[in-house]
Each structure stands twice: as structure tokens, then as C-alpha cells.
Amino acid sequence: MGSGVKVEKGSERKVLIPAVALSPAHDGREKKYGSKLSSTLRPGTSASSVESHKAKRKARPSGRVVKKLTIAIDGPSGAGKSTVARSLAERLGYVYIDTGAMYRSLALATQKRGISPEDEGILTQLASSIHIRFVPGRGQTRVYSDREDITEAIRTPEISRLASSISKQRGVREALVQMQREMGKKGGVVLEGRDIGTVVFPDADVKFYLDAESDERARRRYDEMVEKGLKVDFKETLEELSHRDHNDMHRVHSPLRKADDALFIDSTHRSVEEVVKEMVRVVKKKTMRHS
Ligand code: DC
Question: Is 155 domain-assigned?
């Protein structure tokens, strides 16, 4: 069986999409960064809608043609990317693609097989043959590797570290980037990660670089873990985050950096709502220009 990610809509419909990490947009009720979000699949935001976008342009009842944009959101851990990306996708009726979940799923597979994060050959093979299913459900999207539910397993601090470590391998990046491009090529997508605006979609219609002060980012991660019932230490969380930032920003292949044409947004003292509103404004302006 080839590589891929199966994205299921509830239990009724199955859509096979070449390896992409897809989560449904959420309902916008959550206001906190980094916490679990209620998610509901609406027509127009499901995986199948990606398949059905026959063209990147869609006719409005008025006859005006509106381009379905490709939106890139990059930034370090804890900046609030996932939360705002989901919310933005929800408001626009776009598909949200969480590329970090792909690196995490691969990291878990690597750990289970006892593969060294330095073994680029085997890691590349694994990245090219990995099979993941994303199942939108009540409250959140569940992630499956074959029949195993790995939703929680890919969110541990060890997997965060390992995902950051294997993501420095060129072969791994090439395999996953190819899948991400396939998923986003028809537009109407919000992709979130580290290299979306610089490497995956350098020609993305709109690019954001979301950042926050490191203490605030660590606090968000800390709160998130406490909420999950994990025993954590704030200082350790901060050190862990700084270490991962350093890895992600200083690797040779596709390091995290702001694309020259990305809009920088500092979320330190801003609510999710404020950030998303700003993003929607920018996207609407762009859409007007294209229509
Ligand atoms: O966004 P996240 O924390 O779930 O990502 C986990 C790791 O995956 C991150 O530390 C670096 C890697 N990653 C990457 O290299 N490129 C991406 N586009 C997304 C994630």
C-alpha cells in the first residue's frame, strides 16, 4: 500500500488524500491559545471539499469569480498557530492543514521502530510509506496510524523533541513537503508549520508569521499540559521550547524563518479573536484584489 493519509468525515464518508494532515476548522468558541478546540466539520471545510475544488476560482451568485487562496502561517511553537489557523479556516470556509502533525506522526513511528533520528535513509523510506488517518470527531480530530489511535501519543514532550529532530533530515522534508503541496495545490487552504511560506508554498497568496515572547509561549504550553493532567515544570517547559526553537531555526534544510513577504504578527498581548480578525482583514483585502 502506498503512503497516504485517509481523512474521514464522521463515519459515513472516506476520502483518500495523499498524505496530508488535515483537521477540521473549529467553531470559534474557544478564546484561549493552545487549548483543545471544539471542532465541527461543515460543508466547505471538509477534506472532500479539497478534492471537489475543481478550480481555484469559484463563481459567486453575482457571477463574480472569487479566487480560493492559499494561506501560509509559520512561526515557533506556542505562538498560537494551530488555534488561529483553525479559526481562520473556519471563518473562510477553507481547509486547515496541520503540517506539524505529519512530522509528529512520523516521529512516533520512528520511536516505535527504534530508528535513529540520524538515519536519513530509513527515515526517508518511512516518510514515503507512512499511512495516517485523520478522523474529524466531536471536540477534535483523531489521528490514526493504521488502526491505532495516536492522537494523544503524538503530543507528548518526547515526540515534540523527536519530531523536531527528524525534521532536520532532507529526505524526510522532501517526502512530507511533496504531500503538503499536493494537498494545498487547489487553494482554499490554511497551512500551518515552519516552512510553509518559505518552501512549501513560496508563492502563497497570503503569508503570516506568528510569534510571541518566549515566556508567554511557554506559559501557553504549560497550561495546555496541565489541562491534560500532566505533571510539568514551567522552567523545564521553557527550556524545552527554547531548545526546540533553536533546532527548528538553525537546521540546514528549511529552517524556520519569516518569509520576506510575510506579515509579522506578535500574539503576546493579543487574544485569538484579535489575531484572527486581523488575518481575516488581510485575506479579504487580498480576495477583493483577486476578484
Ligand atoms: O507545529 P508542531 O509543534 O506540531 O511541530 C512539531 C515539529 O515538527 C516542529 O518542532 C518542527 C517540525 N515541523 C517542521 O519542521 N516543519 C513544519 N512545517 C511543521 C513542523
Answer: yes
